[in-house]
Design brief:
Blueprint (H helix, E strand, L loop, with lengths): L1 H4 L3 H11 L2 E2 L14 E2 L3 E4 L5 H14 L4 E4 L6 H6 L7 E4 L6 H9 L4 E4 L7 H14 L2 E5 L7 E13 L4 E14 L7 E7 L20
Parallel strand pairs: 3-7, 3-8, 4-5, 4-6, 6-7
Antiparallel strand pairs: 1-2, 8-9, 9-10
Length: 219
């Protein structure tokens, strides 16, 4: 655990000073977010719909590419190839694939020194756990991105439609994914907005030749 979450504090400090109140996102996500970035101290919940895994990884890719630190907790399917294709800098990603029932403790520790923490809870979080981790993210100026519903989330995202590009009648390669995403929440995000995203897209990854989400099979 110690080796997985160890970060270079001096690099983290420089990144936070440079990026200010917003954690950068890949360009294809800017139009969807009210501030065109992820506000430090906020919590983002992504509904568990088809295409959600691609959206989750894309949300944290921008920070890692801008020399920020990211962590993924409870996502064993997040392989190195897929993460790299989605634009993540693997040398700035800490992964804890199987935290088990200790996932709240793991997330709390990571929020102390990581810019963006992505988590898929291994069991339904209690109201107390959600309040505690939301407060920890706010206090530490980190961004908590949760796969699933989360009480008190500042921003809620949901993929409403998904379509792959590159596959013909039984042949071809999955090259990119078109997602229709709805965003709503509190404050600046109170007014719902929708956008069509291509993932990987400009600034998020190589685009042509991209691999599919884990478990996706082209027929």
């Amino acid at each position: 655990m110690d080796s997985a979450v160890r970060v270079r504090v001096e690099d983290l400090g420089r990144f936070r000073e440079r990026s200010g109140e917003l954690v950068p996102v890949v360009p294809t996500l800017c139009e969807l977010l009210p501030a065109r970035g992820l506000r430090r101290g906020s919590t983002v919940a992504v509904a568990p719909t088809t295409g959600a895994s691609s959206l989750l990884v894309a949300l944290v890719a921008g920070a890692s590419r801008a020399n920020g630190w990211c962590a993924a907790v409870g996502m064993p399917e997040l392989g190195a190839m897929w993460a790299a294709e989605m634009g993540m800098a693997l040398d700035r990603l800490a992964a804890v694939p199987q935290p088990g029932r200790w996932w709240p403790t793991t997330v709390a520790a990571l929020l102390e020194g990581v810019d963006v923490v992505l988590v898929r809870p291994s069991e339904r979080p209690t109201a107390r756990e959600m309040r505690r981790l939301t407060a920890r993210a706010r206090e530490r100026g980190a961004v908590l991105v949760v796969a699933g519903p989360w009480e008190g989330a500042e921003l809620r995202l949901a993929v409403t439609a998904s379509r792959w590009q590159g596959v013909g009648m039984g042949h071809g390669h999955l090259r990119a994914r078109e997602l229709r995403v709805r965003a709503e929440g509190r404050g600046a995000a109170a007014r719902p907005r929708e956008a069509t995203l291509w993932l990987p897209g400009p600034g998020s990854g190589p685009g042509p030749g991209a691999v599919a989400d884990p478990g996706v099979v082209a027929a």
